[in-house]
Structures are given as C-alpha cells and as structure tokens.
Design brief:
Layout lengths: L1 E5 L1 H4 L6 H8 L2 E6 L2 H17 L4 E5 L13 H13 L5 E8 L3 H4 L2 H18 L3 E6 L9 H4 L5 E3 L6 H9 L4 E5 L8 H9 L5 E3 L19 H15 L6 H16 L2
Parallel strand pairs: 1-2, 2-3, 3-4, 4-5, 5-6, 6-7, 7-8
Helix pairs in contact: 4-6, 9-10, 10-11
C-alpha cells in the first residue's frame, strides 16, 4: 500500500512506534515537513529504510500556507532551507504548498500565501521536482497558474478539494495532475466521493494525512486506515462502472501512480 501524504513527525505524538507499524504494514509514504527538525527526522527514517530494505519514505518540504496566519511567522529562513534542500537534491517533492482560505484568519493572510506560493513554484520549476498542493476553499487560485503547472513533472492535489469537473479541466489543460483521496470518502464528502469514483484510475492516489484526518470515532489517522479508504473508493468505482473497481485493482494502480510521482 502507499500513502501519498502524511506527517510522520506529527504522528509520533499519537503513536511512538509508528515507523515500526509502517514497516509492518509494508507502506511506502510521502512525508511532509515544514521545518528543519521535521525534515531531518524524516530524512533519517528514509535513509534507515534504504539500509534495511524497508518500504521507502519519500521526502517533501514546504512552508504550509496555514503558517502565513501566525504572528511570529518569518518566511525567509524557511524559504532558504527549501532552496538549499532542493539544490542539494535532498527532496523528492516540494509540498505541501498552496492556499488556504478556509476562514477569516487565513483569508487575512492571502497576500502572504501568494508570495509563498510563487516562491515555492519558482523552486519547483527550477529543480524539476513534483509539487504537492494544499488547496482549501481556494481552487480559483490554481487555474491562473496553469501555464507554470504544465511544466511540473507531477502535481499532486492532497485531499482533493475540488469537483470532478475541475479535475477534468486541469487534465484537459495539460497538467500532469494526480488526485489524492483520504478519509473524506469515509465521511460521505459528496464531491470527493464523486471524483474518486469516476476519475481515471491512472490519476488516483491514496493518503491518510496522518495524523490529521481521522476516520469517524478515531483520535488520529494512520497507515492502517488505507485499506478502508481503498475499499471504499473501489466500491464507489464499482457503482459508477469505472475501472479499478476492486480493492486489489485499485491498490495496484494507485501504487503504480505513487511511484510514477515520487520514484523518479
């Protein structure tokens, strides 16, 4: 199984043996970090996994758009680290970056998010890396960047927030877009369910956003939720008459998609 977006450092707060659990479940993951401490912890896990022949852990770094609303937020240091990691070829992807206009607090920092995104986009294009996008209540912010996004090897929409029509429009415009789905499909999120059930299977990824998107009745999400997510999406695809309508088929295809994005 593969997890296209998670936060191992943050998951430690809930599950101290989370790396042992990841290996036990045989899960390859893309790990997102936004500061040096998180990234270096993930990098250590990634190196150890290679040494042990364990499922890989791919390294992602960006200044999360939600940071823009914090009073003491100072972007220069984080952007310098981003550029350094990218130049040293220590990154597998830039992310999660993007826009979050969910509430008044985040909307008030929109101009800072604009600046951050432009900086991240410049680094992504210069270094030829995939990009992981966080877009909440802000899909209208993405379409003006179509020309630039078309030049990126792969663009992953974490916890896909848009409609099926918006996803199809991005693909038609020539963006090598992938749409990642997590526990939203387990919570009857209608747009996520419609997209997951009908978009081309070659464009679908699975994720947990661990620990931040727990299924109903749980305190946190983890790789153990992937089987349930996969089965749910396969059921949606079966009902819609789409390809990859069994959990086994979807797991195989989403794994292939995952390594197309991260295993360059």
């Amino acid at each position: 199984m593969t997890d296209a977006h998670c936060h191992p450092w943050d998951l430690l707060e809930f599950e101290k043996r989370m790396e042992e659990e990841r290996r036990k479940t045989g899960t390859a993951v893309a790990a997102s970090a936004w500061n040096r401490e998180q990234f270096e912890y993930h990098e250590g896990l990634a190196k150890k996994a290679i040494e042990d022949g364990a499922p890989p852990l791919f390294l992602c770094f960006a200044l999360h758009p939600q940071l823009s609303s914090e009073k003491d937020f100072s972007p220069p240091e984080g952007l310098e680290l981003l550029n350094s990691l990218a130049a040293e070829e220590r990154l597998d992807a830039v992310g999660e970056t993007g826009f979050d206009l969910y509430d008044k607090k985040f909307k008030a920092a929109e101009s800072i998010q604009d600046t951050l995104f432009n900086n991240h986009l410049e680094t992504t294009l210069r270094c030829g890396l995939p990009m992981i996008l966080h877009v909440r209540k802000a899909m209208h912010k993405i379409f003006p960047f179509v020309k630039q996004l078309k030049k990126i090897p792969a663009v992953v929409f974490h916890s896909w927030p848009g409609t099926r029509g918006e996803a199809e429009a991005l693909l038609k415009k020539g963006i090598n877009a992938y749409f990642s789905f997590g526990t939203a499909v387990l919570k009857n999120h209608k747009e996520a369910m419609a997209s997951a059930g009908t978009l081309p299977s070659e464009r679908i990824l699975l994720e947990t956003d661990a620990p931040y998107q727990p299924p109903g009745g749980k305190e946190f999400s983890t790789w153990r939720d992937l089987n349930q997510i996969c089965a749910c999406i396969a059921g949606l695809r079966k009902n819609a008459g789409s390809k990859c309508a069994t959990p086994e088929e979807l797991e195989e295809q989403s794994t292939e998609n995952f390594f197309h994005v991260f295993g360059r």
